[in-house]
Amino acid sequence: MAISDDIKAYLKGTFAGLGVNLNDKDLSLTIPEEKEHGDYSTNVALRFAKKLNANPLALAQSLARDVHIAGVAKAEAVKPGFLNFFVTEEELTDVIGQVIDKGSAFGNLAYGKGKRVDIEYVSANPTGYLHLGHARGAAIGDSLARIMKKAGFDVTREYYINDAGNQIDHMAESLIARYLQKLGDPTAKVPDDGYHGQDIIDIADELVKEVGDKYKADPQADLAFFKEYGTAHLMAKIKKDLKRFRVEFDVFTSEKAVRKSGRIEEALKILAPKTYRKDNALFLRTTDDGDDKDRVIIKSDGSYTYFLPDIAYHWDKFSRGFDLLIDVFGADHAGYVARLKSAVKSLGYDPERLQVTLVQIVRLFKGGVEYKMSKRSGNAVAMNDLIDEVGVDAVRYFFVARDGTSHLDFNLDLAKSLSSTNPVYYAQYTHARLNSVLENGAKYYDGTYVPALLTNDYEVAVIKALKEYGSRIEEAAETKAPYKMALYIQTLATAANEWYQHCRVVNDDDIPLTKSRLALAKAVKTVLADSLDLIGVSAPEHM
């Protein structure tokens, strides 16, 4: 736990004793620009003095007198009621040795120890190439998995393959049409509700090369073959593209397998008390749990709606022993959340054990106006097109740097810019700069340092940022918000660059100070690389 969290815990405990319960939003803890104002400062006394019928300065003075926090040397109250905390030198500088000793394991937490979490993300239908919505969900889901692993959770990364149902029928019909077109049939047309993108055309090319006109005479008789062929090839392409995007999965679960497993029939037995029949269809009473209407799970013709296999799939995940399920869905699934949580409850599980993260749409901008990139997937920009344009690092960083619940306007010019205004370039350049410093000072660096020498305000700011790493990981894991790691990366990179600009690291005339500053550079480089990896971004050593 960072010293800032210890200070917040002290303040929460003290105010609780006075009858006021504080949460993190109530506690604004800042790092003062002026050293004489301490290492951390808060206005909590000013904010809550009136509620306690107290004078703000007197309240701050009382809080300062009673401080007993390991690592805090003293606390001071200043007008009109600010409370400033001064941290011991040892508390700050011991972090350098910890980073050097632990390397990339620094920041590993036990916060989630013993808790098994399944994170499902992407789960794009095998009907075409991945588009930007899939890509943003992939970046956020994968980053969340990395962060939660770092925080100590036992994480399983899962992809649900929707390889049954109408969308697969439409894909197969589209593939048949393209296959016949390749064989010269001028009457073959892709259905209006089919898939018109380049992806199906590419697969038809491969199919003709493999089987020639084998299925030309009566392709409908071999519809099952076209379903299997198309699904297999599209999933292979999806996996390949995701790997390029640095996204991989531990488990791929097939909807067809769920349907064949008997899980649906077993789930129906459990759901029975919450179901009723109307117009020959079977409904689940999801309005009991806040949904806007009850949902059909079996149609009047006896076929399953999409919802029922999904219920069985979530039951299957719970049956595998996960303590928490996290689904990363596109924003178009917002109306799906209430009914899914209701179904989970009807299965006998606490609906709070299912958490859904919604990911909003992406718009591309270039030259200050919305940019219409080519759409080889038919109706949306393909993930690979954007990667080809700006690179994996920029796409991953920009997709994670903003809260997934917010719309994202992706600035192509900024993403390609080689300047400090580009946040991913700025962070990577900082890492490369630190590596250059270490290479230049290699003859002096031995991993040792003298804490008493690292007293410059700029290096103290860097050390404080290093101390915050574990807490920021815990916060991002707890709130399921990977963008908070991107915020931390910018904080650390900014502090490191300001330190570099104001402090000469390698000084042949002062070897002890040089060694100490090189140790600090090594620690910052290590943490910066690790934090970038948590959001799937590389940390180049030379740029």
Explained architecture:
The chain is an alpha/beta fold. 48% of the residues lie in helices and 13% in strands. The strands form four sheets. A five-stranded parallel beta sheet has the order 7-6-5-11-12, with helices on both faces. β13 (362-366) and β14 form a beta hairpin. The longest helix has 23 residues, at 511-533. It is globular and about 85 Å long. The two termini are 34 Å apart. The model has no long low-confidence stretch (mean pLDDT 94).
Provide a concise account of the structure shown:
The protein has about 550 residues and is an alpha/beta fold.
| CA(first)-CA(last) distance | 34 Å
Let me know the number of strands.
15
Main-sheet strand order equals 7-6-5-11-12
Low-confidence stretches: none
Structural class: alpha/beta
| Main sheet properties | 5 strands, parallel
Average of the residue pLDDT scores: 94
Q: In DSSP terms, counting alpha (H) and pi (I) runs of 4 or more, how many helices?
A: 20
Q: β content, as a range?
A: 5-15%
Rg, please? 28 Å
Q: Share of helix among residues?
A: 40-55%
Q: What coarse outline follows from CA principal-axis ratios?
A: globular
